[in-house]
């Protein structure tokens, strides 16, 4: 950490303004060298002409000086707000490298902020999630986590563990015959209550993780039902090939959508049928595999064929399926509003009829299932794995058998929870978390 690092914090490419960030002990000297003037007052933007070692001007920009520890990383930080563009970037990069600074690794600023106790791991993850957020719901979830909601919950669980452990240690200090039985009972009650709280959080249907990654919605149906036409309508562009020929789509086609703030990954699939030949069979296999991983399925039927409903499509209908009766412009018979116990909506991908209703309906379904409640959610598999490990350790807590072993299970549970916030750290976890960051973050 002795190195002083620098990076372009704003995105690369042509832009009006580019924000550069320097962090480490050499930041102040670098600013002095670039401007040839005394340091500006802390945390105030000042106008500055930056020149390289040969006195060649690099840019006329703004500079800010954040002395440690009151900075994002907790180290001395300098920000330079320059004009965007490759030549300025090249000139500054060369000047900074000449002054002994080195380009930052992805996530290195945040990693230093973590190392200096400015942020915990859930905060660091939330920064990465916020930068990656594509919809309002993802942004809200990231901001909540950045605000410390998840960290506070984990710390509260840890605090309860430590307090049970303290009681248990008091009990260990008593001679066996003097041990007040109520002390042991109390630890048992408290451990059971904590285990129940952990279990309740683990039974959240992975909604935090699903929201972070995007909800998988899959279109399924017979060949020619109009799945690809629906995908194109919902995407607002011709993402998939549509044709009157049955068997047009053979592979899975994905589009990313923002449905009322919910991030969705909508997948079009090959028509379900008795496949003739290897390619068709593989297409159907992929469609069914996709159905298996979907958070929500849209079973698409040809409304012109009602009351006959394709059998293979009926078979995929379950509790997480919405039925779509497409081609309602061609329907002769009256259309049902439920199929196989699930609600059915009539649409026409051709005219656009009923599509607003379909979208409203998907949004309602998503809202119901994935709405962020009052409790902070686990947003990554890593949080879930650690909370599960804590739950398992806590489930093994039995002070009536052996006090020493019981204390050990409490410590194991606390260690598992400590990994979530980074109180207990392993290089492997840190490496994995910060590697997914952008450079400059
Ligand atoms: N120009 C610029 N914009 C930015 C950032 C930045 O570093 N620079 N941020 C970077 O992510 C975000 C804002 N977050 C920040 C978080 C902490 C500190 C900071 O200096 N913290 C000090 C001082 C706190 C105070 O006095 O308010 C500290 O925590 O000690 C700065 C920005 C988004 N926008
Ligand atoms: N009249 C009418 N025709 C439609 C409608 N939706 C799709 N079609 C037509 O139905 C045919 C098949 O549409 P696709 O979207 O390719 O159907 P698909 O379900 O993706 O078919 P496969 O990829 O072969 O499984 C095309 O000729 C479309 O123009 C609709 O709502 N009304
Ligand atoms: Mg298709």
Automatic annotation (TrEMBL):
It is found in: Cytoplasm. Mg(2+) binds at residues 228, 249. Keywords: Cytoplasm, GTP-binding, Hydrolase, Magnesium, Metal-binding, Nucleotide-binding, Potassium, tRNA processing. It comes from the Bacteria. The keyword Methyltransferase does not apply. GO terms for cellular component: cytoplasm. One of its GO terms (molecular function) is GTP binding. Its cofactor is K(+). Its main location: cytoplasm. Pfam families: MMR_HSR1, MnmE_helical, TrmE_N. SUPFAM superfamilies: P-loop containing nucleoside triphosphate hydrolases, TrmE connector domain. GTP binds at residues 224-229, 243-249, 268-271. (6S)-5-formyl-5,6,7,8-tetrahydrofolate binds at residues 21, 79, 118, 441. One of its GO terms (biological process) is tRNA methylation. Binds 1 potassium ion per subunit. Its EC number is 3.6.-.-. Residues 214-367 form the TrmE-type G domain. Exhibits a very high intrinsic GTPase hydrolysis rate. Involved in the addition of a carboxymethylaminomethyl (cmnm) group at the wobble position (U34) of certain tRNAs, forming tRNA-cmnm(5)s(2)U34. Homodimer. Heterotetramer of two MnmE and two MnmG subunits. Belongs to the TRAFAC class TrmE-Era-EngA-EngB-Septin-like GTPase superfamily. TrmE GTPase family. This is tRNA modification GTPase MnmE. It comes from Magnetospirillum fulvum (Rhodospirillum fulvum). The gene is mnmE.
């Amino acid at each position: 950490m002795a190195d002083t690092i620098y990076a372009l914090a704003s995105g690369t490419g042509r832009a009006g303004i580019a924000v550069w960030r320097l962090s480490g002990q050499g930041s102040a000297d670098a600013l002095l060298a670039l401007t040839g003037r005394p340091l500006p007052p802390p945390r105030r933007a000042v106008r500055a002409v930056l020149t390289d070692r040969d006195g060649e001007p690099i840019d006329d920009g703004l500079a800010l000086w954040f002395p440690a520890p009151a900075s994002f990383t907790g180290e001395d930080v300098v920000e330079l707000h320059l004009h965007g563009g490759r030549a300025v970037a090249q000139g500054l990069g060369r000047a900074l490298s000449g002054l002994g600074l080195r380009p930052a690794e992805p996530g290195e600023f945040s990693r230093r902020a973590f190392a200096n106790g400015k942020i915990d791991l859930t905060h660091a993850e939330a920064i990465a999630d916020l930068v990656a957020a594509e919809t309002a719901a993802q942004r809200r979830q990231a901001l909540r986590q950045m605000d410390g909601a998840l960290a506070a919950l984990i710390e509260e669980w840890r605090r309860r563990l430590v307090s049970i452990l303290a009681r248990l240690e008091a009990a260990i200090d008593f001679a066996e015959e003097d041990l007040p039985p109520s002390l042991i009972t109390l630890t048992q009650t408290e451990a059971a209550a904590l285990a129940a709280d952990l279990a309740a959080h683990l039974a959240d249907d992975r909604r935090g993780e699903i929201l972070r990654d995007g909800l998988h919605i899959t279109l399924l149906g017979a060949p020619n039902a109009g799945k690809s036409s629906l995908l194109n309508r919902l995407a607002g562009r011709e993402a998939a090939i549509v044709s009157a020929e049955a068997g047009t789509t053979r592979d899975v086609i994905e589009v990313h959508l923002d449905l009322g703030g919910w991030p969705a990954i909508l997948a079009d699939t090959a028509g379900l049928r008795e496949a003739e030949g290897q390619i068709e069979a593989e297409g159907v296999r992929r469609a069914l595999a996709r159905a298996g991983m979907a958070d929500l399925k849209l079973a698409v039927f040809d409304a012109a064929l009602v009351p006959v409903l394709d059998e293979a499509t009926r078979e995929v209908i379950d509790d997480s399926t919405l039925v779509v009766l497409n081609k309602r412009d061609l329907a002769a018979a009256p259309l049902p509003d439920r199929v196989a116990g699930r609600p059915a909506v009539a649409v026409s991908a051709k005219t656009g009829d009923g599509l607003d209703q379909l979208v409203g309906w998907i949004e309602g379904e998503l809202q119901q299932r994935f709405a962020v409640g009052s409790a902070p959610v686990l947003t990554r598999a890593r949080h879930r794995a650690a909370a599960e490990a804590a739950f398992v350790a806590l489930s093994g807590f039995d002070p009536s058998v052996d006090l020493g072993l019981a204390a050990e299970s409490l410590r194991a549970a606390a260690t598992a929870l400590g990994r979530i916030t980074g109180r207990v750290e392993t290089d492997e976890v840190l490496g994995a978390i910060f590697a997914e960051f952008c450079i400059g973050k």
